[in-house]
Design a protein that fits this description.
The chain is about 30% helix and about 15% strand. By secondary structure, it is of the alpha+beta class. It binds zinc ion. Zinc ion (ZN) binds near residues 165, 168, 274 and 276.
């Protein structure tokens, strides 16, 4: 260690005297051994602060050193999730200032825990504080007097969450030490926190991934002479780094645990701990900020961040800064659970702890206005440095909120009030989901998701007419005069992202109604708020059951098909039933049944079919209609295919969202690697359908796979007991190989179905497996992840059964090839007309033809004087080419195409040079021999956001073997 000069030292002393108690005033013994080790593992004096340069001693509460045998941030030591939990439980056991509860269980069955630290009396009355925060979060029926009383009494909660990103290893170590300090430190600084706050700590949000990463990092230390894994292929069951992008769709157990816990405790701040920046980035983002968030929230971000930067910089710590990467736009991050509900969400990026070994860190950072205290050109970094900085920053933030508790609570109260007022100020009044939606199952699934977020859903008591449109009785309403209106608005509104804004950090468009293919009507008319409606108390479900025939013998039952995912779930859950799909629509029992509707004949099925369908109809939300005559319509049998989902060993990130979708709807599959395909000459013996989810961008990379001179194992051993669960191999090197390509070709030619999603479609394209289809370069296109309109030009193919003529799909230019089927593409001609680019205004809400709304303002501010001016102007309508067209060459059919009008192409997100994408094939089916290759350019399985598109793949599974629209007579079963 070295000192870096007396000036810095004096400055630090002066600040320390103000901000933290001196040793003498604390009058608390120091744990000498622990303190010695803190200093040993800290590489430089300036990576210590007065808050963490020592550890107070305790006679009753064990330190990490006493419990684990090492201190938090020990070189070469990382702690498994269970051991982190055991230590923190031991603290809770020993101290009345700490308690804990289980808030969830991971997909692999590990606990997700919440620890709470405060003073003894507060913890004893925890339920009262939770109830007061609930009261404050919903201003309806709370007077200003009551709010003032709550603000003076309640101890708000501040939630720190660690290790959602398993490769970012320091936070669980740090949080162990933090909870010890919160329990035992008698200094004024910590006492202020304890007496004014309830600190919530979830040390390991993703325990499955944590354990795998600890396995991989610790294996070489335990087994130095053996062959050890050198990379982490899986974290959790499904995805890795994107696990914190699940905050909107809530598909992962961890996301539901976090949201459920948030709604129960209503913490004022949610603070997520990450590692990627030098040395400590306390986030504010750089914008464009989310257009639905109360702008006050951004001010709070800055207040907290600048306080941390100022304090740590004052203590002489270099490289603490704010206002850096991340836009603050997309509400899918886990910590946005706070913003969806008027609290403050934030995150840190600390210099990475990696595998807990020391390393040389070099940086070359410009001295910008937001980062004048630059990190050093080079320095030795350690996991203890990481623990020091995270912990110091977090303690400073906790102390800031503790000392200014009432201000932060008043701000929360104001934001909650403004959220309720929103319906009548900035609008909209609400969203209506019409009772006659053509995909009621999708509608109900979306509404249940909103309910899981804590958003209220109402149902109209009678038919209502608004803006010249009549909505039937029983239509659903998401009111914007509810406390969490902003969160609901964020999910349901349209997004507009300008390319002139900083480069987006993630998706820029996500509108959930569109991606669920269910209609959500944004209603500005405040008359909506006075319509008679009733709050839905339980989860929204579609009514269903068996509709008996009036007369005659029931010879068959019919179930209308509108691509509802639950019908796929029903089919796979009832293998015993014999089902046929109607290849055309038909009329029966005074109803119209669309193509793909299920027909169940009484003579082919169990005797109690009616009773069984009554029960199943209620569970899956369909009506089975009894028919006294079998419909005279061509059909084929809906036989269950044998399905494989193929992965590459190179990345499981995006394909995990495919598996989570299949699992939700009970679709069984074998999970295989490219190696099994490479090594299985006769794939048709084992599978009917091979699903290849998103993988890597290059076909040759799929063929080559991972390289290297040493084997890379991914299997459970004594030193790596937590890996090899989803898939296992003694050596994951190598790819599909040319043998694998030939095996796939033989599989398809023999009658198999190969389905490729997004970039994996490059495999059949590159090897010419799909005749008539190629990739088209579109170098000037700018289309980051967003929602795009596409057309479904034909209805005959089983792949598009149940869909309408248009569909909104998720597309991201960086993730997918743009397909070319050789057909003319209307809408591509260069014109002086607007081309749909989102350059016309700043990033904001709405579509290209809509207006921005600034939250917290009246929606019509400034409009009256603009109106007179506007009246003299003529609006110029947009529009590009038009017309319709059929499929491509006979061997390939384009079943879904991006919209031909550049002004209509983008639904939500950002776009430049949309003419490069218009009319491009989005879903192509190629007939190869007796089989099919189905290529998606959009992603039908993206982060649980795209439930409206799942059924394109489900259709392929259900109608495997019958996919040709021009099916020969003799291939049909009647
Ligand atoms: Zn991270």
């Amino acid at each position: 260690m070295r000192s870096s000069g007396p000036a810095r030292f004096l400055c630090a002393l002066a600040l320390a005297a103000i901000l933290v108690p001196s040793q003498s005033s604390a009058q608390q013994a120091i744990d000498e051994r622990y303190t010695e080790l803190i200093r040993e593992f800290t590489t430089e004096e300036f990576f210590l602060t007065p808050l963490v340069d020592h550890l107070p001693a305790s006679d009753v509460v064990p330190t990490p050193l006493e419990h684990l045998g090492y201190i938090a941030g020990t070189r070469d030591s990382l702690t498994y999730a269970e051991d982190v939990h055991d230590y923190m439980k031991a603290v809770a056991e020993a101290s009345p200032r700490v308690t804990w509860t289980r808030i969830g269980v991971s997909e692999e069955g590990r606990d997700i825990l919440l620890f709470l630290a405060s003073d003894e009396a507060t913890l004893e009355s925890l339920d009262e504080h939770k109830a007061l925060m609930q009261r404050l979060s919903d201003p309806r029926g709370v007077s200003e007097e009551e709010a003032a009383r709550i603000i003076s009494e309640v101890k708000p909660l501040y939630w720190a969450t660690g290790a959602i990103h398993s490769s970012e290893t320091g936070s669980p170590e740090m949080l162990m030490e933090l909870i010890y300090r919160l329990a035992v430190d008698e200094g004024q600084f910590i006492r202020d926190i304890r007496e004014n706050l309830i600190v919530m700590i979830t040390p390991v949000v993703e325990p499955d991934g944590r354990n795998k990463v600890v396995d991989v990092h610790m294996a070489p230390r335990r087994n130095p002479d053996g062959t050890n894994p050198s990379r982490t292929v899986f974290w959790g069951q499904y995805v890795y780094h994107s696990n914190n992008r699940d905050g909107m769709a809530l598909t992962l157990n961890l996301s539901r645990a976090i949201t459920g816990t948030y709604l129960e405790y209503m913490p004022l701040v949610v603070h997520d701990l990450h590692e990627s920046a030098s040395y400590l980035y306390t986030s504010t983002g750089r914008g464009p900020y989310n257009a639905w968030l109360d702008p006050m929230t951004i001010s709070e971000w800055n207040r907290l961040a600048h306080h941390e930067v100022r304090t740590l910089t004052g203590w002489g710590v270099p490289g603490v800064y704010t206002h850096d990467f991340y836009d603050g736009w997309t509400p899918n991050y886990m910590f946005w659970v706070a913003h969806l509900h008027n609290s403050i969400g934030r995150f840190y990026e600390t210099q990475a702890a990696r595998n807990a070994a020391d390393y040389v860190l070099r940086t070359n950072q410009n001295r910008t206005w937001d980062r004048p205290n630059t990190p050093l050109r080079e320095v030795v970094w350690s996991i203890r440095n990481n623990v020091n900085l995270q912990q110091s920053g977090l303690l400073v933030a906790l102390n800031e909120v503790a000392l200014n508790r009432e201000e932060y609570l008043e701000s929360f109260w104001t934001r909650s009030q403004r959220a309720v007022a929103k319906a009548r100020t900035e609008g909209p009044a609400g969203y209506v989901l019409p009772a006659d939606d053509r995909r009621p199952g999708q509608q109900a699934r979306l509404l249940r998701l909103l309910q899981t977020h804590g958003f209220e859903v109402h149902r109209t008591d009678e038919a209502v007419t608004l803006d010249d449109r009549t909505y039937p009785a029983g239509s659903y309403v998401v009111r914007m005069d509810q406390p969490f209106s902003r969160g609901a608005d964020m999910l349901l509104d349209r997004q507009f992202y300008s390319p002139d804004d900083p480069r987006p950090y993630d998706d820029v468009g996500w509108t959930f109604g569109a991606l669920f293919d269910t209609e959500t009507v944004r209603v500005d008319d405040v008359a909506l708020l006075d319509v008679g409606m009733t709050l839905e108390e339980g989860p929204v479900r579609v009514a269903g059951g068996a509709v008996e025939a009036d007369r005659g013998t029931t010879v068959a039952w019919a179930i209308h098909y509108a691509a509802d995912n639950d019908l796929t779930r029903f089919r796979f859950a009832h293998e015993d039933l014999v089902l046929h799909a109607a290849r055309e629509s038909f009329e029966a029992g005074n109803r119209t049944f669309g193509p793909g509707s299920f027909i169940l004949r009484s003579d082919e099925n169990p005797a109690d079919l009616g009773g069984m369908l009554e029960e199943a109809g209620q569970e899956y939300g369909f009506e089975a209609v009894a028919l006294s005559d079998a419909p005279s319509v061509p059909t084929h049998e809906v036989a269950l295919p044998r399905i494989a989902v193929m992965h590459t060993w190179q990345t499981t990130q995006n394909e995990g969202w495919l598996r989570i979708g299949l699992d939700e709807f009970g679709v069984p599959y074998d999970y295989i690697s490219v190696h099994e395909v490479r090594d299985t000459p006769d794939l048709l013996d084992r599978w009917d359908v091979i699903l290849f989810g998103p993988s890597v961008n290059s076909a040759l990379q799929i063929v080559d796979g991972l390289g290297g001179s040493q084997p890379i194992p991914w299997e459970a051993t004594d030193v790596t007991p937590n890996i090899g669960r989803q898939a296992s191999s003694p050596d994951i090197r190598g790819g599909l190989g040319l043998e694998g390509v030939l095996n796939l070709q033989r599989f398809v030619e023999g009658g198999g179905t190969l389905i490729t999603l997004t970039n994996s479609s490059r495999l059949p394209l590159h090897f010419g497996l799909a005749p008539g289809v190629s990739e088209r370069q579109a170098s000037d296109l700018w289309a980051p992840g967003g929602v795009f309109r596409a057309r479904i030009p034909e209805t005959e193919s089983p792949l598009v059964w149940g869909f309408g003529e248009e569909i909104a799909v998720y597309f991201s230019q960086g993730q997918s090839p743009i397909l070319n089927d050789g057909r003319p593409r209307p809408g591509t001609q260069v014109a002086s007309e607007p081309d749909g680019s989102t350059t016309t205004r700043r990033s904001s809400r709405g579509g290209i033809d809509e207006d921005d709304v600034v939250q917290g303002h009246g929606r019509d501010w400034g409009q009256a004087s603009m109106q007179a001016y506007r009246e003299r102007q003529e609006e110029i309508g947009g529009g590009g080419g038009g017309g319709s067209w059929g499929g491509a060459t006979p061997a390939s059919r384009t079943l879904v195409r991006f919209h031909e009008d550049p002004m209509q192409l983008l639904y939500s997100g950002g776009l430049v040079n949309g003419r490069q994408l218009v009319s491009s094939p989005a879903l192509v089916e190629s007939r190869v021999g007796d089989g099919h290759i189905i290529m998606f350019s959009f992603n039908p399985f993206w982060r649980g956001n795209t439930l409206g598109s799942y059924a394109f793949v489900f259709n392929a599974l259900l109608h495997h073997g019958h996919l040709r629209a021009d099916q020969d007579e003799d291939e049909e079963d009647r």
